[in-house]
Amino acid sequence: xxxxxxxxxxxxxxxxxxxxxxxxxxxxxxxxxxxxxxxxxxxxxxxxxxxxxxxxxxxxxxxxxxxxxxxxxxxxxxxxxxxxxxxxxxxxxxxxxxxxxxxxxxxxxxxxxxxxxxxxxxxxxxxxxxxxxxxxxxxxxxxxxxxxxxxxxxxxxxxxxxxxxxxxxxxxxxxxxxxxxxxxxxxxxxxxxxxxxxxxxxxxxxxxxxxxxxxxxxxxxxxxxxxxxxxxxxxxxxxxxxxxxxxxxxxxxxxxxxxxxxxx
Length: 264
Known about the structure:
Porin, 12% helix, signal, Transporter, 15-stranded antiparallel β-sheet
């Protein structure tokens, strides 16, 4: 009888441990899937490194570190406000003779999404987007800008797909600099496995109405959610190719991301 007690205890412990482990794995997968939603109700701080090569007569390169905190604010039982900010730190090697290397802060883009609670996996959000001219003379527009932004996405099973869009017009700033009128379109698709690995593809198409030029990079990415102590971090890598190659535009690029999650 005494030897049966630890055997029964071990069986009970195993019965409890298996669901607990499955719950932990499902929880990580759910968090990884939330990262595919740009307006998920979860605080996250992505650090996105981009390397874009070869543009200009000297085949210049650009390195950009985008710091992109996402802060959700619960307005009431039905609506959330999600604030997404993009702070770019840029190093640009000279693309042509007579053009010096440039390093510093580029303009900040900040979006305010008003989003109702998701129903049947469908999420939509609308709001204003602002361009803050905090960049250096070489890397910024020296223009204040604003416009509308919107998002619609569907999450079904392990897949997420949708479209993020905005348009920014300049309304003030240096008269010596060109006006800003830019449309951004980002269709995206991702698949998150039960082990919290996400495979993704998207376009980051932008059209400059002032200069009538397109930039259309396609990104293929893979990321995985890790846990370091109590901190969950998604680490990812990706490749980029420019489908539309305007004059002096990059040909290809690489991407690496580290996203810190702060779930409730």
